[in-house]
Amino acid sequence: MSTSVAQSVGESWRALRTPLLVTGLIVLAAIGLLIATSARTSGPFSPDSTESGGARALAALLENHNVEVHSTESLEDAVRPGDGKALLIGPSGSLNESDWRRIADARWSHVILIRPGSRALSALAPGVRSTGDSLASRSREARCDLPAAVKAGTVTVGGPTYSAPEGAITCYGNGINHTVVRLEVDGRTVDVVGTPASFTNDQLADDGNAALALNLIGTHQELTWYLPQYESTYNGPDEDEGPPLIPPDVRYIAWALAFAVLVVAIWRGRRLGPVVAERLPVIVHAAETTEGRARLYRRSRARDRAAAALRESALGQLHKAHGIPRRAEPAAVVATVAARTGRDPAMLYELLYGLPPLTDAALMSLSQELDVLTQEVRHP
What we know:
The chain is an alpha/beta fold. It has 13 helices and 9 strands. The strands form 2 sheets. Strands 1-9-2-3-8-7-6 form a 7-stranded mixed sheet, sandwiched between helices. A hairpin with a 4-residue loop joins β6 and β7. α10 runs parallel beside α13. The two termini are 58 Å apart.
């Protein structure tokens, strides 16, 4: 009667439940950590970020001057009616043209665009164009009559520059292109700011940066601080481009899963100790192994393999007896053996390196001749 060695369902579960539990806990912990970290530092110019490129200091400054700051990453918060309120749009994420049109239709009283792209400019600041040039970061005078810039005085400015249409107020530039542009569009004020680094935690305290930020952004008691993500109101093939193929939150889950797999791989791949030698249940003598192998050769009529095995064994003895290197050429082996045994080199070559025998009788003859040759080696 045979006994099955396959594991039952219960045994498999008992073997896998610990790794699965550990993997699940690691994934949950990693996802929680990533979500908590992303909530605190949700991208460049985030009002919740305390990193050098964040804007937590600016958000605190605005709140200290009675400006209620509402931070959001949801498009729905940016497209709700905004009469009497200000909207700041950060430099992150990607929205399509219909999203920007919806924001423009929300009728915010004041819109501040931080390092905007061409779609944002087209929808909210028509006539303003990015020049593709960038100013080196250094202290600059406003050279304009914008009240916020006049009050701030010298400001540390650097970054992308913009060209502006007639009637717009341009500040902090080289006389042709500027990093701050203000214009009136459909009854609302739009500020284009290409120098977000001036308002970050790292540089807010330099020069008149804080005064410019406060007077430029803190114009209303309510400020919606919108950091665009990768959401989209994609409605069909008429849109210029569809929504992203991979949602942004997927990367957090992917990193968590990759980390969990790495931890489990290291855990399961640890060394289990030295190899333990075990006694064989049955001792098989070398002669029995040789006979069994010979029967297999005979059954499959593998005379070529049998002849190769016999010749390899004979050559091993010849190499050892005559001090011939193992990698010596056949001609050198034949010459050495012929010189020491007196045999004909041609016959020796045919014996040691010739074609495989075609019949069982020829194989037996080859075996006997090789045996005689090796006997001569052992008993010269």
